[in-house]
């Protein structure tokens, strides 16, 4: 059998084999064992066969051989002969692929390209009757020619244009259409199409609107949007299409389908942006007349937005090259009917239609400086007249808002004071009205009765826009506004929700970005002057002032001044003997802390000053206060120390390394000499005051890098600290010491010395057999030590977790319950032991804790449920199950819900049992449980619960938790708990957020799993509607509404 | 729904101006630092209990138990909050913003004034249509009625009427709204229920 015959036999079922045969022949040709003429001749008997299949296979053989030849092998003449051969037989399968191979060769000439193109156009007029893959090949070939030999096709002019249209007419496959659209776009843009405009336009517009929806597991990855984009490119490709495209697209706006309207508007926008300005001008008014209805009677917000976009883009296109504004401009002609319509609608500005009119004005006026000028010329004066004659505050307010929209456009066109873009040359047409605006808005803001809060807010917002508009107001005019704001904040009584004051603060903060000088000169002194020298506790008005100062001190200059002034105030306070309450110095420190945490401190030139004045000086003062040698006791207050410490922590983190080393030496001495202060570690006689300075030491330590040299040896320091933490002290210093231990173990203890920490932990853990009680302080120390080890995933992590869990089974109830609560400590985010402070927190630690503990807790509870019910000592061990559930809730409240999902089948029964704890002190546990449940339900909906088979039991428990009962003594279900339970019920009936569209399809054939409990829920909720608490009733109304709406009744059965 | 809009350009009240309940600002959380603002912007300050072991006993229950005793009876504002967010069937605007319902036109009275210990109450809501010949007044009335019946406990009787002098056929509409059987029949009507369900969608 010849190679050809073998090839024809295998080509259908073994492509690999067929290719190898062709490659062998190609090698023979290359090595001159045979030649191309022979190969072609060997086709002889099949090539004229009646069966097109046979002919196709024979041609494919030749193509395969050519493909396997090296690219430079064929001579020009051979290429020519082969091209002619393939063109003659172009209709046989394989020929197109053959030509495609040939046209890639360097020796493929223009003439050959023309020959191929002609062959394509002549022979494929009935292309659509062929299979998709063959059509695809043809388009691909055409596309290749288009990219490598475009000039040839271009020279063919109408022939190639009409030929291409003929070939593709009737094409329906999305893959092919993607190619067709891109080929046609080239023709539309580059060919002279004037003789065939309609033909070309129709060839693509027939496909509008695209209704294609990709199959579920689309292997080709073509979306409807891809097709829409390419089609849109074609429709907008040439201005010559305008007479056809624009009326047709506007017609489509009559469609009842929102999607069709959306596509039409998008295509329209594309046309506006690519047709010539003259063309756009011709149709501008027609477009306005049609799409104004989409805005004035908006059905859907997105349609109105797109329509506004179209109006804006027209104005923008018509402004191209306009330097001088005149009435004769196409832009002016376009805007005339628009402003006329808007002016009419705005005559009653408080009515519904005014809002779309405002939006239209805003969209068109922000398009360009000329557009803005033309609109302002005809709109502003009538608005001002209306304002003068307005009979009610509602109307005035609507007018102020309309003007504010224009001010916002002005900012888009002319920029703000801080804008870096160059200002346009045109003059701002609003300048003419400057004094009037200043008067109207000032009067509205300051001359109105104080109760009209929303009216005054509108005025304030307008004034603010004008103040930030570039090159508009003079400094003195903005200064006046700033004074108004000062007056509102300092002198006025609070009205209602204080919205005006909040807006005033925002406005000052905004102005401070543009004009820091004005804030420094006017606002700053006025506010600082109201700060008292000391506080006797009677008037806490300084708090508001400090809050405002903190918010407006964004600019560097203001920030510096604020910090200096406050530090002065503080040092004065520390010097007075009767310093009054600690609240005032604490508020000052809090303000400094706030403004500093809003800025990046690294490289701040003031850093050295902050270090000297705050870290060194204040820390030292605190130490001296602890020794009882200070003038007052301000720095002995633990809340003051707490804020001061956080502040120091922030600064220490940003210091250069050399200074950090200095801090490391002073962690415990706190920058004092030995006779001034006795450091806490190893001190036998440290007082409570002394211990309180550990708050400072801890935060200083936290801010240092892990490789600094600490003043003490770890193996001595740790036991000393642990000894201090297990002996009772007041809460704040004890927490500081616990965190100190955790920091040392987690961040500073080298891996090799971990045994020091685990040894300490072992010595603290109670022996399981012992009945004795372990103190709360010891348990805390145990958990903080464990936390520090677990977060760095010490090798003993699993062992630690198991020993912690065994404490829960302790026969002593107090020990067991206290330990159960301690589990919340393990993974809780901490301010000191935090990533910001360089703590060693491994990514997988949370997951590790959860996946280790959950199965153990589950197993323990199962054991308790089965054995203890029959056992005699059941009573004495009743606390153990709640303890396990508490521990679980502690863990759950500190990990992300995504970790929970995989363990859901194990977890859900435990959560349900937690809800069964109907006692007052289990509220925290149940609150945490409901929190977890609500996240699970919100993310994945009722289906996950249904999969575990717990819908009925969950719903019953939720309803029970939502119940309010007057009879019981004490509160079993607090209001917050009731709300949380109702919230879960509400979420159950909602579509989950994480699901997207998928369940809608799945839902169609299936009844909601909630249906069996629907009536039970609706009945029970009816009584919750009478709850004595408003928040609970609100939650019940929402939940009931969701169940009424979301859970459909069974479809009516046909009898 | 009517194909032709009955009133295409009604006056709209600003949402910020509608009556709302002023809640006493909750200051218990920030009490340590005396400032709500700082507490809210520096979250770490209010992280809650830093020490779950000692703070445990007093976390939720203590602060709530004294509050629990204080009842908050259902009042006119609460009724207003329930119905003011219903959307008008013609416009995507709430009944509150259109002033179709307003706070002074809502009243709650004992249903049986002669029996002081009876818990039964009657809620009366007067509706002001945007124009006097609005044919959708009945639908709006029904919507308000449905919303209240879904959201109030069974001891409340709901009475929805057109405010006197605001509608040309007020008596007829009132008759329809007060007639239990006609209301029940209307609610069996699928199309009508569809319109009402759409109105109620925006109730938050």
TrEMBL record, chain A:
Pfam families: MMS19_C, MMS19_N. Its main location: nucleus. The keyword Nucleus applies. It comes from the Eukaryota. It is found in: Nucleus. Keywords: DNA damage, DNA repair, Nucleus, Repeat. Residues 40-297 form the MMS19 N-terminal domain. Residues 545-989 form the MMS19 C-terminal domain. Belongs to the MET18/MMS19 family. Key component of the cytosolic iron-sulfur protein assembly (CIA) complex, a multiprotein complex that mediates the incorporation of iron-sulfur cluster into apoproteins specifically involved in DNA metabolism and genomic integrity. In the CIA complex, MMS19 acts as an adapter between early-acting CIA components and a subset of cellular target iron-sulfur proteins. This is MMS19 nucleotide excision repair protein. It comes from Aspergillus pseudoustus.
TrEMBL record, chain B:
It comes from the Eukaryota. Residues 1-14, 25-34 have a biased composition (Polar residues). SUPFAM superfamilies: Fe-S cluster assembly (FSCA) domain-like (SSF117916). It comes from Aspergillus pseudoustus. Residues 76-161 form the MIP18 family-like domain. Residues 1-69 are annotated as: Disordered. InterPro entries: FSCA_dom_sf, MIP18, MIP18-like. Belongs to the MIP18 family. This is MIP18 family-like domain-containing protein. Pfam families: FeS_assembly_P. Gene3D superfamilies: 6.10.250.1280, Fe-S cluster assembly (FSCA). Keywords: Chromosome partition.
């Amino acid at each position: 059998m010849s190679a050809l015959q073998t090839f024809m036999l295998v080509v259908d079922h073994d492509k690999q084999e067929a290719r190898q045969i062709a490659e062998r022949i190609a090698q023979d040709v290359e090595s001159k064992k045979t030649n191309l003429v022979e190969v072609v001749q060997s086709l002889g008997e099949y090539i004229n066969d009646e069966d097109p299949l046979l002919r196709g296979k024979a041609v494919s053989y030749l193509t395969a051989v050519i493909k396997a030849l090296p690219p430079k092998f064929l001579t020009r003449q051979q290429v020519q002969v082969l091209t002619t051969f393939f063109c003659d037989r172009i209709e046989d399968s394989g020929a197109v692929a053959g030509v495609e191979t040939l046209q890639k060769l360097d020796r493929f000439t223009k003439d050959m390209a023309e020959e191929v193109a002609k062959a394509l156009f002549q022979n494929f007029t009935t292309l659509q009757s062929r299979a998709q893959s063959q059509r695809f090949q043809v388009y691909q070939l055409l596309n290749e020619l288009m990219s490598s030999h475009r000039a040839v096709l271009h020279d063919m002019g109408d022939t190639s244009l009409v030929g291409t249209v003929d070939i593709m007419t009737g094409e329906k496959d999305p893959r092919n259409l993607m190619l067709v659209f891109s080929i046609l776009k080239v023709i539309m843009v580059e060919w002279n199409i004037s003789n065939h405009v309609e033909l070309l336009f129709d060839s693509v517009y027939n496909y509008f609107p695209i209704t294609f929806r990709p199959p579920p597991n689309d292997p080709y990855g073509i979306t409807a949007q891809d097709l829409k984009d390419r089609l849109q490119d074609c429709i907008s490709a040439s201005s010559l299409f305008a007479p056809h495209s624009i009326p047709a697209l506007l017609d489509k706006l009559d469609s009842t389908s929102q999607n069709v309207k959306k596509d039409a508007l998008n295509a329209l926008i594309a046309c506006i942006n690519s047709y010539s300005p003259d063309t756009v001008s011709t149709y501008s008014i027609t477009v306005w007349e049609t799409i104004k209805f989409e805005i004035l009677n908006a059905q859907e917000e997105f349609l109105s937005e797109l329509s506004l976009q179209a109006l804006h883009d027209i104005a923008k296109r018509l402004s191209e090259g306009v330097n001088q504004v005149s009435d004769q401009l196409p832009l002016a002609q376009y805007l005339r009917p628009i402003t006329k319509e808007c002016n009419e609608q705005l005559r009653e500005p408080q009515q519904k239609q005014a809002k779309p009119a405002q939006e239209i004005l805003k969209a068109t006026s922000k398009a360009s400086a000329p557009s803005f000028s033309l609109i302002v010329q005809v709109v502003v004066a009538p608005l001002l007249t209306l304002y003068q004659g307005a009979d009610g505050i509602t109307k005035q307010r609507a007018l102020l808002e309309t003007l504010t929209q224009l001010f916002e456009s002005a900012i888009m066109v002319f920029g703000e004071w801080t804008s870096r873009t160059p200002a346009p040359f045109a003059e701002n047409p609003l300048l003419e009205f400057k004094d009037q605006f200043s008067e109207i808005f000032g009067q509205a803001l300051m001359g109105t009765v104080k109760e009209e809060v929303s009216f005054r807010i509108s005025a304030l917002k307008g004034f603010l826009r004008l103040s930030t508009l570039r090159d508009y107001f003079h400094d003195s005019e903005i200064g006046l506004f700033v004074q108004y704001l000062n007056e509102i904040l300092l002198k006025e009584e609070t009205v209602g929700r204080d919205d005006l004051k909040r807006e005033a603060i925002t406005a000052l903060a905004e102005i401070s970005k543009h004009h820091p000088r004005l804030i420094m000169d006017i606002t700053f002194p006025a506010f600082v002057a109201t700060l008292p020298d000391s506080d006797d506790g009677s008037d806490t008005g300084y708090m508001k002032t400090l809050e405002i100062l903190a918010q407006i001190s964004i600019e560097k200059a203001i920030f510096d001044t604020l910090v200096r002034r406050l530090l002065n105030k503080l040092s004065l306070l520390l010097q007075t003997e009767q310093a009054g309450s600690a609240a005032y110095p604490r508020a000052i420190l809090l303000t400094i802390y706030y403004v500093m945490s809003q800025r990046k401190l690294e490289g701040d030139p003031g850093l050295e000053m902050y270090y000297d004045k705050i870290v060194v000086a204040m820390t030292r003062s605190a130490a001296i206060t602890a020794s009882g040698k200070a003038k007052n006791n301000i720095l002995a207050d633990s809340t003051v120390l707490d804020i001061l410490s956080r502040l120091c922590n922030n600064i220490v983190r940003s210091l250069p390394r050399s200074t950090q080393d200095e801090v490391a030496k002073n962690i415990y001495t706190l920058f004092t000499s030995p006779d001034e202060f006795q450091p806490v570690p190893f001190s036998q006689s440290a007082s409570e005051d002394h211990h309180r300075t550990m708050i400072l030491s801890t935060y200083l330590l936290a801010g240092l890098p892990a490789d600094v040299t600490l003043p003490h040896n770890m193996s001595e320091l740790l036991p000393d600290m642990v000894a201090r933490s297990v002996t009772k002290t007041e809460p704040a210093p004890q927490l500081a010491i616990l965190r100190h231990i955790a920091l040392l173990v987690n961040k500073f203890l080298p891996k090799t010395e971990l045994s020091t920490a685990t040894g300490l932990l072992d010595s603290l853990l109670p022996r399981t057999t012992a009945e004795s009680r372990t103190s709360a302080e010891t348990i805390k120390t145990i958990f903080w030590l464990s936390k520090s080890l677990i977060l760095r995933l010490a090798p003993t992590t699993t062992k630690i977790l198991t020993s912690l869990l065994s404490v829960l089974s302790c026969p002593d109830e107090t020990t067991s319950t206290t330990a159960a609560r301690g589990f919340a400590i393990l993974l809780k985010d901490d301010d000191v032991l935090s990533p910001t402070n360089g703590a060693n927190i491994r990514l997988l630690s949370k997951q590790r804790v959860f996946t280790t503990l959950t199965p153990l807790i589950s197993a323990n509870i199962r054991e308790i449920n089965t054995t203890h019910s029959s056992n005699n000592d059941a009573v004495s061990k009743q606390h153990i199950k709640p303890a396990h559930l508490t521990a679980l809730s502690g863990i759950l409240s500190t990990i992300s819900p995504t970790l929970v999902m995989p363990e859901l089948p194990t977890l859900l029964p435990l959560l349900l049992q937690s809800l069964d704890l109907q006692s007052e002190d289990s509220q925290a546990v149940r609150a945490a449980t409901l929190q977890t449940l609500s996240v699970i339900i919100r993310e994945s909906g009722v289906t996950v619960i249904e999969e575990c088979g717990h819908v009925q039991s969950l719903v019953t428990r939720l309803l029970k938790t939502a119940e309010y009962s007057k009879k019981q003594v004490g509160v079993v279900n607090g209001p917050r708990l009731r709300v949380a339970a109702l919230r879960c019920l509400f979420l159950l009936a909602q579509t989950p957020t994480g699901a997207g569209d998928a369940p809608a399809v799945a839902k169609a054939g299936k009844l909601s799993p909630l249906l069996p409990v629907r009536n039970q829920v609706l009945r029970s909720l009816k009584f919750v509607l009478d709850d004595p608490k408003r928040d609970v009733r609100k939650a019940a109304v929402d939940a009931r509404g969701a169940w009424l709406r979301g859970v459909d009744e069974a479809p009516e059965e046909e009898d | 729904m009517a194909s032709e809009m009955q009133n295409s350009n009604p006056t709209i009240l600003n949402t910020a101006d509608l009556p709302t309940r002023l809640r006493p600002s909750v200051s218990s959380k920030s009490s340590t630092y005396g400032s709500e603002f700082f507490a809210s912007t520096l979250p770490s300050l209010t992280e809650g209990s830093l020490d779950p072991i000692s703070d445990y006993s007093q976390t939720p229950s203590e602060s709530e138990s004294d509050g629990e005793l204080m009842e908050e009876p259902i009042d006119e504002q609460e009724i207003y909050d329930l119905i003011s967010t219903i959307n008008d069937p013609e416009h995507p605007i709430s009944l509150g913003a259109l002033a179709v319902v307003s706070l002074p036109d809502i009243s709650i009275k004992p249903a049986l004034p002669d029996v002081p210990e009876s818990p039964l109450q009657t809620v009366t809501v007067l509706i002001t249509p945007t124009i006097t010949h609005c044919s959708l007044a009945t639908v709006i009335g029904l919507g308000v009625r449905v919303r209240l019946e879904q959201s109030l406990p069974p001891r409340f009787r709901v009475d929805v009427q057109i405010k006197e002098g605001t509608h040309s056929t007020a008596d007829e509409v009132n008759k329809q709204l007060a007639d239990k059987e006609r209301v029940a029949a209307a609610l069996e009507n699928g199309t009508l229920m569809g319109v009402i369900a759409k109105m109620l969608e925006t109730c938050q």
